[in-house]
Amino acid sequence: MTARKERRSDCPISYVLDIFGDKWTFLVIRDLLLKGKKTYGEFATSDEKIATNILASRLVLLEDEGIISKEKDPAKGSRILYRLTQKGVDLLPVLIEMMKWSAVYDPDTNVPKEMVEHAKAHRDAFLNQILEDLKKDKYLLA
Amino acid sequence: MTARKERRSDCPISYVLDIFGDKWTFLVIRDLLLKGKKTYGEFATSDEKIATNILASRLVLLEDEGIISKEKDPAKGSRILYRLTQKGVDLLPVLIEMMKWSAVYDPDTNVPKEMVEHAKAHRDAFLNQILEDLKKDKYLLA
DNA sequence: CTGTATCCTTAGGGATACTG
DNA sequence: CAGTATCCCTAAGGATACAG
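Predict the joint structure of the above. Result:
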């Protein structure tokens, strides 16, 4: 069933959380975006062992939100392939920033070393640029 | 009580979700980072109306994770001020990317118009840059 | 005002079996 | 393999009262 969409507020952060505010939905995006996974079975066998009912409900949710789409595998009719829409692909920067943050602060995370270096080196410059924009009220919320 | 930390995997995205995988925690960060809120009462009166028990538990969680810290208001001893640590401030890029995404895809979001323009104009360039890095396996997960 | 505590309800989610 | 369905349980979370 389609989850009834009830916004808690008109805040853009809240909009993201209304869709992704749980421990699983972003992992499906990760699998599609960064692990090249495309099928139900591939999602189901990720390290975090998502339950099949949760997985199915998330795929429906993501399709309802226009973030993924389904198609039959042309090579094998019984197989269904999931792919990200543009709206889904555009989540990449969010994922990347999450990974950079973890790369810096999670000692146990398995992020490539060069990415850690990249993140640390660019962190200050990136933050300063954003803070500049903040000063111009570019991102300030009401 | 301190939530028992049980990682589901060593994935950096999963690390973020283990902390922020709910509908409320990021809103507290938003209030600190983008709304200039500092006190319990200010958090409690946000648009989304977080329950006080949830709020308190999230503040404990965030302090345990080293993302916020507490101090007494020097001007008023009974008042407690929360502030972000460096680890917390470094979440800003994540929040910003979330806002940019909402600015593009949520028709009802109340993001400043200039930010929408900014996001749309820079989206392709930004994605292309990340995709370049992806090709170099800079962000690829195992 | 800053929290705790308690009660209660619902939603999230694990395990597993089952269907096309 | 791609899902549904069911059972059951726990955690999340709303309401509210209360304490320092």
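Residues 38 and 107 of chain B are 30 Å apart (CA to CA).
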